[in-house]
Amino acid sequence: MPTMIDDNWVNCVKRKPIPKGTRLLVYKKYDGHCAYCGKEIQMKDMQVDHIVPVMKSYYGAKEEAEKVRKMISDGSFNEVGNLMPACRACNFYKSMNDIDGFRKRIQTQLEHTCRSTFQTKLAMQYGIIEYKPWDGKFYFERIKTEE
Ligand SMILES: [Zn+2]
Description:
7 helices, about 50% helix, two-stranded antiparallel sheet, mainly alpha, DNA Binding (I), subunit A, binds zinc ion
């Protein structure tokens, strides 16, 4: 049985716009870069990503559901600590995943999809593109270790 989060909770969080001041803090968090791929983004193009995402149901993860419910009720869900600046592509691809889920999605699905298309294979044969494995570290993790 999945643990459900009440639809009202989900809607209440989603409908609540993130205040301008908070958006600015999120933008500055990584100096105008997408926290995931590291691409420079304009403030107007920035998507605000939730590190801990809200889902409608948590299959077999009662603790996770409880945590999200608590974050929503105490307001920390929409605070800078749970928010990341993201480019459109990363935000779209992260979707409802948490950080480790997103990492796994890139390492498995994305890499596999890219390498298995005819065009990519051919482009590799011609040396137009070169395959370079990803080290699995997001931008915000890379800059953390450099400091
Ligand atoms: Zn990105």
